[in-house]
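Reminder to self: tokens first, then the designed residues, so the page reads top to bottom the way the pipeline ran.
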């Protein structure tokens, strides 16, 4: 963990501790835009006739849920005018401000904005901050474009364009019925994003979201890349299915099913990423270098975070002008050499008993690892995977 992150987390814990000791509840809101008559910019003209109706409604909804024992963190864009800023005095609770583009000296507001002025209305005035919510450090910042990629963010600025993204919660009034959002509601949204929103919704999953759902399997077939992001050695393991494709039976799909079944039966509390270089269908525009790049990427990941699995079945059909499993034989030799340099690399080798050369492979690996044994069944491969991994999974 970097020094900057350590400092950020320490500060956020202290801020959270003080806030929770002092206040009954914590709320979040942004983009009130008091005294702003440009209703059509935000879609408010569909509901309200004028800016006074908007401001009155925000004040009403705020004071219905917030008491003077509460803290409200305003995530920017308070008001267009000084008269609009004065409306902060009509609102319940202690107010902190994370500044937006309306809240700076060179910003959008039509009056001279300074931190000294803002501090007459807000106990705390900052450009960004972090706070613990549900045991996690949450980054609070007005602009979605500045969101942190590794965790959840509370943002504003975009009014009603979205309520949530895969790692962001928009607390803008236009997206939330003009009501401040409680800390409990933020937790509810985070839980919903993690449990019910996946790559089909957001075209990719945030690492921190998946890491909260231990016990998942993601199957990748070339040239697909993981939607999880980076890998966590303590909770995610990558398995590369190395072995013949051309002329070979569909052993990869059979092994994938066996790993999935065992994973479900054991209820192991970690995530598996299975990378199979065998495409379900070889497209007419097959790109050899794309395939090699993908294989190199996941071979390296498996060597660092899981295991490389070699399986050598008997040929199903002969390929004209090509020796069966010629690439696999080369890769076994390549990784035997790498394991000589780093014995922590997990390599599992198996194959049909009649496959020529298995005894020699076993002999060579025994030079590095005296306990190394060739597996003769796919079930034995699966057992070896879980034997190696279960030892490493945190209880």
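Designed residues (395 positions):
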């Amino acid at each position: 963990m970097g020094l900057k992150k350590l400092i950020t987390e320490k500060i956020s814990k202290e801020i959270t501790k003080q806030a929770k000791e002092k206040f009954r509840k914590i709320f979040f809101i942004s983009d009130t835009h008091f005294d702003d008559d440009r209703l059509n910019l935000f879609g408010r003209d569909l509901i309200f006739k004028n800016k006074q109706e908007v401001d009155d409604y925000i004040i009403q909804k705020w004071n219905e849920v917030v008491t003077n024992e509460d803290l409200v963190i305003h995530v920017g864009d308070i008001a267009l005018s000084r008269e609009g800023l004065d409306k902060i005095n009509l609102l319940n609770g202690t107010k902190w401000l994370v500044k937006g583009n309306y809240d700076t000296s060179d910003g959008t507001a039509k009056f001279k904005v300074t931190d000294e002025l803002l501090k007459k209305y807000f106990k705390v005035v900052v450009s960004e901050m972090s706070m613990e919510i549900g045991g996690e450090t949450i980054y609070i910042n007005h602009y979605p474009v500045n969101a942190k990629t590794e965790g959840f963010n509370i943002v504003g600025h975009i009014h009603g364009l979205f309520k949530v993204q895969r790692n962001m919660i928009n607390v803008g009034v236009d997206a939330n019925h003009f009501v401040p959002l409680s800390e409990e509601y933020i937790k509810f949204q985070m839980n919903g994003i993690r449990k019910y929103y996946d790559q089909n919704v957001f075209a990719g999953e945030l690492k921190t979201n998946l890491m909260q759902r231990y016990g998942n399997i993601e199957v990748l077939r070339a040239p697909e890349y993981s939607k999880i992001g980076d890998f966590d050695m303590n909770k995610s393991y990558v398995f590369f299915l190395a072995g013949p494709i051309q002329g070979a039976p569909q052993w990869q799909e059979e092994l994938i099913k066996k790993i999935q079944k065992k994973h479900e039966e054991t209820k192991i509390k970690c995530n598996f990423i299975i990378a199979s270089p065998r495409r379900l269908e070889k497209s007419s525009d097959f790109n050899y270098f794309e395939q090699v790049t993908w294989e190199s990427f996941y071979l390296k990941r498996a060597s660092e975070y899981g295991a490389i699995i070699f399986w050598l079945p008997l040929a199903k059909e002969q390929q004209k002008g090509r020796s069966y499993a010629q690439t696999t034989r080369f890769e076994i030799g390549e990784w035997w050499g790498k394991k000589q340099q780093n014995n922590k690399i997990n390599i599992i080798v198996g194959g049909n008993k009649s496959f020529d050369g298995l005894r020699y492979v076993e002999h060579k690996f025994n030079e590095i690892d005296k306990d190394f044994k060739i597996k003769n069944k796919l079930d034995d491969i699966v057992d070896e995977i879980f034997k190696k991994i279960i030892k490493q999974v945190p209880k």
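The chain is about 35% helix and 15% strand.
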